[in-house]
Amino acid sequence: MCGIIGIVGKDAVSQRLVDGLRRLEYRGYDSAGICTVTNGQFGRRRAEGKLNNLAAKLAAEPLEGVVGIAHTRWATHGAPTEDNAHPHIVGDVTIVHNGIIENFKPLRDELIAEGRIFLSETDTEVVAHLVVARCRLRHRLRKQWLPSCRGCTEPLRWRSCFANILISSSAHAWVPRSLSAMERGKITSAQMRWRLRR
């Protein structure tokens, strides 16, 4: 089962994210990745195989940022490749996910028909596209980010123990900078906003 972690800190979080993933290694995984936010931009490193491969990438190309998410993946949809490893980034949103979305294929086809471009074979990327596409639409209808985001994942059919962590980095009006924990597609009260200093 996948392992996920998110940190909103005061100092650089990349090493703590990797340390957190090491504590979740017992769950089994085939790839890993982290994403941090620096000056409103995402920085991401992903790797196939063991955490040592990810750690080597981070040693060669360090990530700054005081906010970040991390993930160890046990492949269900899509092969255990770097492209399919989490976190996934779509526009101003990045996401990690633990669980299975049973109806991701028809939703993916619908989003592709709307012109959205997918970069992985995973069901997780559908969630990020739904959040970006639907929340922008709902914002145009003058609804706020949090209720909009709660409603945008309603079409998804979840299976098994499930959690997401979603980060928005944007300074745009439609979405504040925040880290949000989601359970079965609904954002819980564990939403944190921050002012980016790095």
Structural write-up:
- The protein is of the alpha+beta class.
- It has five helices and nine strands; from the N terminus they run βαββαβββαααβββ.
- The chain has helices spanning 14-23, 51-60, 104-113, 124-140, 145-152, and strands spanning 3-8, 31-38, 41-48, 67-73, 88-90, 93-101, 158-168, 178-183, 186-193.
- β5 (88-90) and β6 form a beta hairpin.
- The longest helix is centred in the middle third of the chain and has 17 residues, at 124-140.
- It is globular.
- It starts with a strand and ends in a 5-residue tail after the last strand.
- Mean pLDDT is 78; it is low at 172-176 and 189-198.
Keywords, separated by commas or semicolons:
five-stranded antiparallel β-sheet; 5 helices; alpha+beta; 9 strands; 28% helix
Number of strands: 9
What is the molecular shape? globular
Low-confidence regions: 172-176, 189-198
- The neighbouring-strand order within the major sheet is 5-6-7-8-9
**Major sheet size, sense and barrel closure:** 5 strands, antiparallel
> What string, H for helix and E for strand, traces the elements in order?
EHEEHEEEHHHEEE
Mean pLDDT score? 78
| Structure annotation, total helices | 5
Quaternary state of the chains? single chain
* Rg: 16 Å
Kindly, what is the distance between the CA atoms of the first and last residues, rounded to a whole number of angstroms?
33 Å
